[in-house]
Each structure stands twice: as C-alpha cells, then as structure tokens.
Amino acid sequence: MAPRKRPETQKTPEVAVRPKSKRSRSPRELEPEAKKLCVKGPGSSRRFDSGCLWAGLASLQVPPSCSSIVRALHHHKLGKAAWPSLQQGLQQSFLHSLASYRIFQKAAPFDRRATSLAWHPTHPSTLAVGSKGGDIMLWNFGMKDKPTFIKGIGAGGSITGLKFNPLDTNQFFTSSMEGTTRLQDFKGNTLRVFTSSGTCNFWFCSLDVSARSRMVVTGDNVGHVILLNMDGRELWNLRMHKKKVTHVALNPCCDWFLATASVDQTVKIWDLRQVRGKSSFLHSLPHSHPVNAACFSPDGAQLLTTDQKSELRVYSASQWDYPPSLIPHPHRHFQHLTPIKATWHPRYNLIVVGRYPDPNFKSCTPHELRTIDVFDGSSGKMMYQLYDPESSGIISLNEFNPMGDTLASVMGYHILIWSQEEARMRP
Predict the structure, then answer these.
(1) What pTM was estimated for this model as a whole?
(2) SS3 assignment for the chain
(3) Confidence of residue 96 (pLDDT cuts 50, 70, 90)
(4) What pLDDT, on the 0 to 100 scale, is given for residue 89?
(5) Whole-number pLDDT of residue 385
(6) For the chain, which domains are there?
(7) What's the pLDDT tens digit per position in 224-271?
(8) Basic and acidic residues bias: where (predicted)?
(9) pLDDT in tens, 270-290
(10) CB atoms < 10 A from the CB of 348, how many?
(11) How many Å apart are CA 63 and CA 237, to the nearest integer?
C-alpha cells in the first residue's frame, strides 16, 4: 500500500514560548500545612516507600558542591577513591543543584495533548514532541526562531513513538495510530515507510532504533513485534504478547537484547539472535497490572518498568529471576491522559517520574501535589521533587537531555523545559 501523503510542513503561529519568572516557590512554601513524612529505607523484601511528599535535600547530607568534587577527583587520581565513590559524589552534587531548577520555557503548540518526546542526540537544546493529532514540533529553545511545526492528520494520527535517526540526525522515526512506522525529515517528508497496517483496526504503539546493528523495532496494538533493517526489509514479524505492546527498548550496550512491555501484564526479555517464536523469550517478568514502559538504564545493567497503577520496578540484568526493587508510586492510568512513564537520568543512577496523587494510595497525604519525583535507582529512596505552582497539572512524560542538565516535561497540551536558574542567568 502506498504511504499516505503527509501534509506540508509549516511554521507554527500557535506556539507561545515565554520565559518564566526568576523564582518559583517550592512545595514547602506553598503547602506549609501538608504533613511531612520520612523516607523509608529498603527492607528485607527490597520494597521501598515513596510516601515522602516533601523529600527535600536536607536529609541527604549532600557534600559541598565544588570542594568535595575537586577533592574526590584528586583522591581518584591518586588511587585513594574508587570510581563508584566518585560517581556517587557527582550524583549528590547534581541532586543538590535540583533545588535551583525552574521552568524557564513553556510551549503549547498543539490542539490535542502531547503524547511523545525525544531529545536530539547531539544538540542539547533541541527536542521533538508529538501529539495525539499527529502533529510534530521540532524545537530549538536556545534560539529565538519559532519551532518547526509538522501538521498531522488530526483524529486518529496520535504519535506513539519518536526517535531521532542516529545515522542522520536531521531525520526522525515515528510510530503512530495512523497505522505506520516511518522515517521523516525535518520538512515533514516521508523518506521510508517501514510498516503500514492499511487499516484503522491495527496501529503501532512504540519503536526503538539501533545505530550499531542498523535495526528498527516496533510493536503494535495486538501484540506483534516487528524487526526490520534500516533499508526497510522485514527480518521477522511475531506475536510476542497477548495484547498491545506499549513499549519496546533495545539495550544501549548490547543492542541484540530487547525488552518488550505490554498491557497483558508482562515484560519480556529477548535475545534477537535467538528469536524463533513467541515462546523463545529469555525471561518473562509478570506484573500485577498492565505495563506502560520498560527502559534499560544508560549502562544497560538495569531495567526500569512502570505499570498503570502504583508501582515502579527495577530489575538487575544479572539476576532477572531475583525479586526486583519495588517502589510504590501513584501514577494510575486514565483514558484521556498520556500514560505516565518513568525514565532514567542519562548520567546518574536516578529515576524521574510524574506523580498522579491517588486518594486510595497507601501513603497519600492531604494537599498532595502533582510533582516530578526523583528516586535513587539503587536504594529506591525519594531524593527530590520538582514543582511549579503555575504548571500544576499531571506531568506524564519527563526526560533529561543527553547532557543531563535540562529536563523536558509533557503536561497535557504543554511542553515544559526545566533548568538551573543560575545557568539561565549567565551571559
């Protein structure tokens, strides 16, 4: 079937980008009557509690930022400090800096909610965002020029997956409810259609790309996972899950290692070199609820999963059968909300996820805010919460840029850019 012709690219007149005020009050200042809870450490069951609404930095014993890092580097050079110790010091310094993070740019370019985002791999101030109507915005917020806006088809065109092409960063891959997985350029031209269902009953829900092996993998709404090479040749098409495949992820260090998540309440691990059928998975990780996402850590050693109710899980790559680290966290699924997905920080062992307060959640407190929560990936402890009173909606997607110093968030129709206040005030 010939690919549907895409509408022309245009510069959007609707994008309203505005700098934020220099200082936003913290949740502590906004809700002094809210109950303060203590962060609980890991127990014997490896289960953690995220019930600390005001998990500030006071209890972290954060080292003084400059002198401690210089000292740690010096000790590492002399052989007196191991690399993990140095890395922990750097992570603590980063956590200390979160106190100065503010929203400094905001955009609302779409007539339907945003559904996906991706950072450009080499330009730290450029990202792409897709919407439920199939619109795509390419935004370099470091420049005064208006973002590039690619108009979608409207209803039924939801962008479900978005990745820049690692072999040509002026291009990007998309999967959509329009029924295609395709490669496009910044002008909106379709360069190659990798999959096309040809019917409104089947669509594609996720994708990932490997530059090393030149592969594209995509999952659909009935449980199929399709592997193709960059030339568009299909390598296999198998039904790996009983229901919709919500997320596919290739391991960043071993790209033959694939994780697939599904609403059938499982996450499965596959060796692409040994896939022979739906039963050829290496491991099947059962969950209590449908799963929104399964993401490998930047070093490939851990797998983070987000269910559709109240649990984050961290699996160790060396011990798949060992009980995972469980982090209770309210992020329940709602039909008209972009599914909440937790992600990793690109440089530190930290987890970032939006909070959707649930009155039925065990540790729910009065006046609980819709924060962005930061957890330690090793201990499961809440380390910090970001909040802006002028952007108090439910934040579904959060992702740091490759440098790890700027955070992009999706809140309904809005795209929020967070960064250090001090960094934005520099000439």
Answers:
(1) 0.83
(2) CCCCCCCCEEECCCCCCCCCCCCCCCHHHHCCCCCCCCCECCCCCCECECCCCCCCCHHHCCCCHHHHHHHHHHHHHCCCCCHHHHHHHHHHHHHHHHHHEEEEEEECCCCCCEEEEEECCCCCCEEEEEECCCCEEEEECCCCCCCEEECCCCCCCCEEEEEECCCCCCEEEEEECCCEEEEEECCCCEEEEEEECCCCCCCEEEEEEECCCCEEEEEECCCEEEEEECCCCEEEEEECCCCCEEEEEECCCCCCEEEEEECCCEEEEEECCCCCCCCCCCEEEECCCCEEEEEECCCCCEEEEEECCCEEEEEECCCCCCCCEEEECCECCCCCCCCCECEECCCCCEEEEECECCCCCCCCCCCCCCCEEEEECCCCCEEEEECCCCCCCCCCEEEECCCCCCEEEEECCEEEEEEEHHHHHCC
(3) very high
(4) 82
(5) 97
(6) 37-57+108-425 (2.130.10.10)
(7) 999 999 999 999 999 999 999 999 999 999 999 999 999 999 999 999
(8) 1-11
(9) 999 999 888 899 999 999 999
(10) 21
(11) 51
Does residue 101 have a pLDDT over 70? yes
Residue with tokens 């209890």: 59
